[in-house]
């Protein structure tokens, strides 16, 4: 009855301190940007501050209902074992391995091969896959993809990314509102040391741009962490690599029109729904296929050497 | 795993713990006397294979390990695979006490042999005389038991019955308190289990399951009261069966 006497495979893959550090640094930078932003909003006071609170509240409400919202936005349909026995069985077994509550399972009618996971916490999570991915992947590859999604659930990525985006949403709202109101709006009544509307507008613009880049970076790091989680839990980095290659190959051949149906949830997807070249680099929600495959190759080498 | 670790994207395989499994031995008296559940004489240990050298070494030694375990305990132990690529160690023994202790000792041996935290669950079958089968699953990740009562349609479970069982055994077993973690276990390569695919399965995805599809189970499923070993199970088992002894 001992917990200590583990056999020789009990060693798990070492943590990736570099990845964790990059995630930590990004969160820290975001927090710093937001701290400045909130200070400016607070100083601006009055209606600007109330608007900020309302928009932030909406963003958080959206997160709270993210499972239902994403299902509705992507047209995903929740399925039972009677409809998709293999998919449901595989997810349930993987959930047991991850020690996660059984998630809702949904299918999206789309030939674009993709998968997503969302929900405010593991107890309200949804894992959705497209019919296109079910058609293309074999059992082991599907397991690897589902494990990637369950890693997102376990890492609470829907929560992390929504929280990271709350003030970015506020900033973008103020920037857009600024256009409506016109930049020339005067504020004669607001005397004293309060920042003018122009200052709030410019600060919002900068916060919006900087936080946008930081959130995208955070999203890419979380993707790598989920890839890593899948590789560790299934013990099969090569299966995820093979699935990613198959999926990105298919994505390039499928016209964008088909992908628009799944676009709103792009940051939560296995591969970005937009595969256009303009979205690479700093602006991409996902790391490049090359980066992902390189990490999986490293994991494969570590696993084999265990 | 710590919340902070989670937020920073760390992943660790949850450890497998077997320290509660033996309690089923005494609880089975209650099962039989108060709930009329007769042990079906079969238990299965579910293992998730991984791509590692250590795992491959362990798997190569599995047959020998099971043979020794079988000789020591007098149980019939076979090695099988299911439709999803999981490895199963199927133990057959008429006495539930022996079944539980064999499952316990095999789980320890598997861990020491290098399967480590890949041992997911132990499944114990019971029959209550109806067409339904009752399973008690031991989740190694949670060190807790939970009931699984699949309906004969192979698609749904009898939740009311499961809750009743959990309430009845709550004192004797550590029953998993979180019902969202009562993971069903379909497509088991055990005798007398419901079909791997529900009768009304949609066309959504069936590739892998099809390869291992067995003949549709007849309507009147045999009540597995005294199944002996892996013998005579014929087409009733999932593919990939390989004798370990």
Task: Describe the model.
The complex is a heterodimer of chains A (306) and B (245). By secondary structure, chain A is mainly alpha-helical. Helix content of chain A is 63%, strand content 5%. Chain A contains 11 helices and 4 strands, in the order αααβαβββααααααα. Chain A has a 4-stranded mixed beta sheet with strand order 1-2-4-3, with helices on both faces. In chain A, helix 1 (17-44) runs antiparallel to helix 8 (197-234) and helix 2 runs antiparallel to helix 7. Chain B starts with a helix and ends in a 34-residue tail after the last helix. Chain B has 245 residues and is an alpha+beta fold. In chain B, helix 2 (24-35) runs antiparallel to helix 4 (96-115) and helix 3 packs antiparallel against helix 4 (96-115). Chain B has helices at residues 3-7, 24-35, 53-73, 96-115, 159-169, 207-211; strands spanning 38-47, 76-81, 87-92, 119-127, 133-139, 144-148. Residues 201-245 of chain B have low confidence and may be disordered. Chains A and B meet through helix 1, helix 4, helix 5, helix 6 and helix 8 of A and helix 3, helix 4 and helix 6 of B.
What's a concise summary of this model?
The complex is a heterodimer of chains A (306) and B (245). By secondary structure, chain A is mainly alpha-helical.
Parts with pLDDT < 50 across at least 5 consecutive residues of chain B: 201-245
- Shape summary of chain B: globular
**SS element count, helices of chain B:** 6
Could you spell the SSE succession of chain A in H and E letters? HHHEHEEEHHHHHHH
The total count of helices of chain A amounts to 11
Distance from first to last alpha carbon of chain A? 26 Å
Q: Distance between termini of chain B?
A: 39 Å
**Could you give the order of strands across the largest sheet of chain B?**
2-3-1-4-5-6
**Strand line-up of the largest beta sheet of chain A:** 1-2-4-3
Looking at the chains present, what oligomeric state does this protein adopt? heterodimer
> Which chain pair has the greatest contact?
A-B, 69 and 65 residues
């Amino acid at each position: 009855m001992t917990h200590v006497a583990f056999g020789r495979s009990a060693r798990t893959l070492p943590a990736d301190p570099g990845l964790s550090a990059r995630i930590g640094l990004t969160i820290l930078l975001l927090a710093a940007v937001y701290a400045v932003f909130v200070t400016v909003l607070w100083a601006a006071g009055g209606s600007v501050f109330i608007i900020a609170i309302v928009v932030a509240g909406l963003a958080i409400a959206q997160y709270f209902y993210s499972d239902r919202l994403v299902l509705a936005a992507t047209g995903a349909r929740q399925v039972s074992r009677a409809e998709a026995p293999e998919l449901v069985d595989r997810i349930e077994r993987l959930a047991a391995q991850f020690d996660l509550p059984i998630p809702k399972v949904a299918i999206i009618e789309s030939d674009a091969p993709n998968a997503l996971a969302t929900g405010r916490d593991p107890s309200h999570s949804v894992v959705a896959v497209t019919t296109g991915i079910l058609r293309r992947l074999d059992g082991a590859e599907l397991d690897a993809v589902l494990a990637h999604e369950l890693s997102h659930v376990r890492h609470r990525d829907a929560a992390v990314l929504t929280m990271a985006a709350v003030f970015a949403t506020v900033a973008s709202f103020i920037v857009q509102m600024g256009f409506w109101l016109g930049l020339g709006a005067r504020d004669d009544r607001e005397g004293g040391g309060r920042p003018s509307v122009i200052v709030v507008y410019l600060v919002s613009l900068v916060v919006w741009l900087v936080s946008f880049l930081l959130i995208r970076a955070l999203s890419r790091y979380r993707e790598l962490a989920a890839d890593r989680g899948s590789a560790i839990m299934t013990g099969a980095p090569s299966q995820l690599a093979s699935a990613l290659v198959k999926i990105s190959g298919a994505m390039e051949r499928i016209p964008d029109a088909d992908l628009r149906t799944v676009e709103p949830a792009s940051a939560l997807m296995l591969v970005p729904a937009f595969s256009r070249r303009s979205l690479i680099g700093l602006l991409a929600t996902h790391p490049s296929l090359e980066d992902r495959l390189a990490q999986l190759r490293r994991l494969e080498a570590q696993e084999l050497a265990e | 795993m710590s919340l902070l670790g989670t937020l920073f994207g760390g992943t660790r395989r949850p450890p497998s713990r077997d320290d509660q499994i033996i309690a089923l031995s005494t609880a089975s008296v209650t099962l039989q006397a108060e709930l009329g559940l007769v042990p079906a004489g079969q238990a299965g240990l579910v293992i998730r294979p991984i791509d590692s050298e250590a795992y491959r070494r362990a798997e190569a030694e599995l047959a020998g390990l099971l043979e020794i375990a079988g000789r020591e305990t007098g149980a019939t132990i076979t090695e099988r695979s299911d439709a999803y690529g999981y490895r199963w160690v199927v133990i057959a023994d008429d006495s539930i006490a022996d079944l539980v202790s064999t499952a316990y000792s095999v789980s320890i041996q598997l861990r020491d042999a290098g399967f480590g935290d890949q041992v997911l669950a132990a499944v114990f079958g019971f029959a209550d005389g109806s067409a339904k089968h009752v399973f008690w699953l031991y989740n190694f990740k949670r060190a807790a038991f939970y009931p699984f009562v699949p309906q004969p349609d192979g698609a749904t479970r009898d939740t009311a019955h499961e809750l009743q069982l959990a309430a009845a055994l709550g004192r004797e077993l550590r029953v998993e308190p979180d019902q969202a973690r009562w993971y069903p276990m379909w497509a088991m390569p055990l005798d007398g289990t419901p079909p791997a695919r529900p009768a009304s399965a949609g066309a959504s995805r069936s590739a892998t399951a099809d390869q291992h599809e067995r003949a549709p189970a007849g309507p009147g499923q045999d009540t597995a009261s005294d199944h002996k070993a892996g013998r005579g199970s014929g087409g009733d088992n999932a593919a990939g069966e390989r004798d370990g002894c």
